[in-house]
Fold this sequence. Notes:
Structural class: alpha+beta
Number of strands: 9
Oligomer: single chain
Helix content: 10-25%
Low-confidence stretches: 16-33
Radius of gyration: 23 Å
Number of domains: 2
Mean pLDDT: 78
Strand content: over 45%
Shape: globular
Amino acid sequence: xxxxxxxxxxxxxxxxxxxxxxxxxxxxxxxxxxxxxxxxxxxxxxxxxxxxxxxxxxxxxxxxxxxxxxxxxxxxxxxxxxxxxxxxxxxxxxxxxxxxxxxxxxxxxxxxxxxxxxxxxxxxxxxxxxxxxxxxxxxxxxxxxxxxxxxxxxxxxxxxxxxxxxxxxxxxxxxxxxxxxxxxxxxxxxx
Length: 191
């Protein structure tokens, strides 16, 4: 091989190696499966672990502010509605987040499930949630522990992530985690 052809071959291989390295490093780098970055407005991506199976859920998510009566307390809450993207797999998830404090204004922060007040009657002080998988072998799951972290709040969007454990009446536990970017729920109220 001539010296000129050898130099051209080395130059071409030398130029291709950085592209191959960059491509393979970005493919295997930690965080390349960052779900938060790919969740668009109005969508969610959640993963559940239930009885050794991991399932990915995605669909539309909406938020609304409302008031909940619990005993003598009238608490302002943020409701998150996670809907199925497929009619045939009609699962749904829902969460109530109490808004406390003097101003009762939602701020970016972490909201926890109070393990002592995790039932529906104690929801004025704790995140309350459910998972309805609409599966012939499953029942409703209710929050046991975990948290929902609100990252951003605006008139037209509420985004964040969740990491909660839910349990059904038979004691089966589900771990649910992921990201959401909720749009406001449009409702028409006739008075």
